[in-house]
Amino acid sequence: MLNTDFYIGKKIAVVGLARSGIACANLLYDLGAQVWVSDNRDDDLTRSNAANLKSKQIKFELGVHSKEFIKDKDLIIISPGVTNEALPVIWANDYKIPVISEIEFSFSLCPAELIAITGSNGKTTVTSLIGQILAAAGKKVFISGNIGNPFAGEVSKMKAGDYAVLEVSSFQLEYIRRFKPKIAAILNFTCNHLDRYKNMQEYLDAKKRIFLNQDKTDYLILNHEDPALRALAQDAKARVEYFSRTSDLNPNQAAALEVGKILGIEEALIMSVFKEFKGIEHRMEFVAEINNVKFINDSKATNADSTVWALSNINGPVVLIAGGKDKGVDYSLVLDLARSKVRDVVLIGEAKKKIESVFKGSLSVEEAASLDEAVIKAYSKAKPGDWVLLSPMCSSFDMFSSYEERGRRFKKAVFELAKKS
Question: Is it the case that residue 142 has pLDDT exceeding 80?
């Protein structure tokens, strides 16, 4: 790793005790820093996470943020879910303490060539494809960020000549300073996260930070079909390359191909990776078939555009399970396609009333108190040849710790239903 001496003896507070917070705290301890961790949640999951801190010398507090954990620190590292309005960030600004994100911290240590992928949709698929392309070309590659282990959990394993492929969100980019990918890609830009951002421009400004520090030796890849992204080229110092879908390639494949071409990887090898690619868990994942009703886990669909894509790629009537924590999404984007493809809708979570107000009168809508109940209700409504699709259009945080936990819960409920049937 690079710059390890910088952190020796530093007093550093980590805010947030999910996956990236644990990885940060443990790595900082290994580097010789004095570490404090603060999380305003106090539940079974957070207590379990605290048990994964590798030393009792790492001080932590749960269920509260206190000034003592922020005051007199040399640096604050925040998890993606921590907003500008969070007390630790406000206190840090008052005390003039630098605040950075987990990916900024990890970047400061990273000796590997960095490829960073962002966008409203498709990040995980493209990140996975690029990782598999590099591996097929015989390169040592680490896939992290919002996919797999956090960057901070992988960076200590990296060496010069390796590749780090990161899926990064707008949240993670808000608090970067020197973060500088050799190749950055912005896949698309659609309505999302308006529970966090005041408007779409503020959301776009956060995405743009991915190329903030790039220069003429770097590459920025943009979706040529997206006018908002094409316009970003004028702000870039990096060399700009574009991708577009073709008759043979979907947009995700086209973006991955462009990265592969920049890296000098043979197109025939890239195409063979596309052919063998099996998809990713929780994205249009086939789960089971019960009495000629197929169940699809699309838990990663946390906005309306993702659900439109899912519905577009299913041939047959759909019973849709949707809902969760509202992100300011325009659910009406789904309505035209849903009228022709969706037989029934079962809604869960905090956003169910808001979604119902959009769908009511156009679609048959019913509520469920839990995801398990939603699976049972959806199956009872389905007919042979139908598809039961979990595609929530919402984040998971009202009922689950992550979209992965939501997807696993869905699969478990389907498997239990299969046993009974």
Answer: yes
- Look at residue 120 in the predicted model and tell me its pLDDT: 86
Is pLDDT at 195 greater than 80 in this prediction? Answer: no
All structural domains of the chain with their residue ranges:
10-97, 104-276, 285-420
Separation of alpha carbons 351 and 396, rounded Å: 11
pLDDT at residue 215 tops 80: yes
Residue 421: pLDDT over 90: no
Report d(CA 25, CA 106) in Å as an integer: 12
Fold of 10-97: Rossmann fold (3.40.50)
What's the CA gap between 210 and 244, in Å, rounded? Answer: 20
Superfamily classification of domain 104-276 = Mur-like, catalytic domain (3.40.1190.10)
SS3 for the chain is CCCHHHHCCCEEEEECCCHHHHHHHHHHHHCCCEEEEEECCCCHHHHHHHCCCCCCCCEEEECCCCHHHCCCCCEEEECCCCCCCCHHHHHHHHCCCCEEEHHHHHHCCCCCEEEEEECCCCHHHHHHHHHHHHHHCCCCEEEEECCCCCHHHHHHHCCCCCEEEEECCHHHHCCCCCCCCCEEEECCCCCCCCCCCCCHHHHHHHHHHHHCCCCCCCEEEEECCCHHHHHHHHHCCCEEEEECCCCCCCHHHHHHHHHHHHCCCCHHHHHHHHHHCCCCCCCCEEEEEECCEEEEECCCCCCHHHHHHHHHCCCCCEEEEECCECCCCCHHHHHHHHHHHEEEEEECCCCHHHHHHHHECCEEEEECCCHHHHHHHHHHHCCCCCEEEECCCCECCCCCCCHHHHHHHHHHHHHHHHHHC
Q: 103 and 81 in contact (C-beta within 8 Å)? A: no
pLDDT of residue 376: 98
- Across 106-128, average pLDDT: 96
Specify the CATH number of the domain 285-420: 3.90.190.20
What is the Cα–Cα distance from 166 to 151, expressed in whole angstroms? Answer: 8
Please report, rounded to a whole number, the percentage of residues in the chain having pLDDT higher than 70. 100
